[in-house]
Amino acid sequence: MNRTTVVVAIGLVFATTLPAVPTQVQAQTSRTFVSGSGADSGSCGRAAPCRSFAYATTQTNAGGEITVLDSAGYGPVTITQSLTITNPGGVEAGITAASGVTAITISAQPSDTVFLKGLTLEGGGIANNGINLISAGRLLVTSCVVSGFGAGTGILLGPNGNATNVSFTIFDTIVTGSGQDGIEIVGLPFEQSSISGTITRVEASGNGGSGVDMSGGNTFATVNVVATDVNSSFNSAGFTINFAGTLYLHRNVATGNGTGVNGINVYGSVKTFQDYLFAGNTNANISGVSLSPASNGLY
Question: What SS3 state is found at 8?
């Protein structure tokens, strides 16, 4: 055996004994895709999309976007970073949650922004919450349907101590069939913190609790909300107010509820442009709170 043969033989021995090395290290990208015909493998590119939101989040950079390509159910997901999940339109981007499960859990950093667009969340009357914000800096929800979360709340904004000041926007969205509240905004669990936002063009009807519940609870955290063009009807209460802060009501409807506007321990103020319709509620149209005119309103 000559020297060349010996070297080749030794190389073959090492090649067969060393562990396999991946041919390619997968890197996250700023835009990923999901499809009903996709597979949860690879990097979720346009040509080879993934199957679930949960897997796609592992392949998406912080601040990136997951885009839905076609109609399908994409499974519950936990979001831990700045992220957009978007349905460009023309298809149904669904999440069906099982008993005791939350469809979308947001547990991100105080500086993170989460944007959810065009999603259909279904709880089948037994799931827990549709959207549960535990921590984040900002949440935007637009053009979504949240239905049938019979064991919980449709959209629960209940940040924990990891968040100090949270802002939100809920726009052009339907929340119905929740066992508890349609939309619940909970004051942060310590003083000198705030949660503030807008609810616009929202249908919050047929929920077991309030259509919209703004609860500071026993804390002194500030809750500031502007509600415009909100139809909160056929709930236990249309609007429940239990907080320190300010609520602005503009062109809202509450009818067919037990109580239209229900005030409990109102440490702040409720202001209106006197263009609301709170009528036809079983117990009272307005209880426990006075509606003061907004200082710069036309009425």
Answer: helix
Q: Contact at 8 Å (CB) between 159 and 133?
A: yes
Residues in the chain: 299
192 in a structural domain? yes
Distance CA 280, CA 255 (A): 5
pLDDT of residue 192: 58
CB 175 within 8 A of CB 202: yes
For the record, the structure tokens of 149 come out as 């979360």
What is the value of pTM for the model shown?
0.87
Structure tokens at 266: 């109102």
Residue 63, CA atoms < 13 Å, CB-side half-sphere: 1
Does residue 198 lie within any of the structural domains? Answer: yes
CATH code assigned at 127: 2.160.20.10
Dump strand ranges (E) for 125-281: 131-135, 138-142, 145-147, 155-157, 165-176, 183-186, 194-205, 210-215, 222-231, 237-242, 244-250, 253-254, 259-263, 269-272, 277-278
pLDDT one-digit tens code per residue, 103-152? 999 999 999 999 999 999 999 999 999 999 999 999 999 999 999 999 99
DSSP assigned state of 50: B
| Helix, coil or strand: residue 3 | helix
- Band the pLDDT of 190: cuts 50, 70, 90: low
State the sign of the Cα–Cα–Cα–Cα dihedral 258, 99, 231, 133: positive
In a domain, 41, yes or no: no
What is the 3-state composition of the chain as percent helix, strand, coil, each rounded to the nearest 5?
A: 5, 45, 50
Residue 39 lies in a domain: no
DSSP annotation of 294 reads P
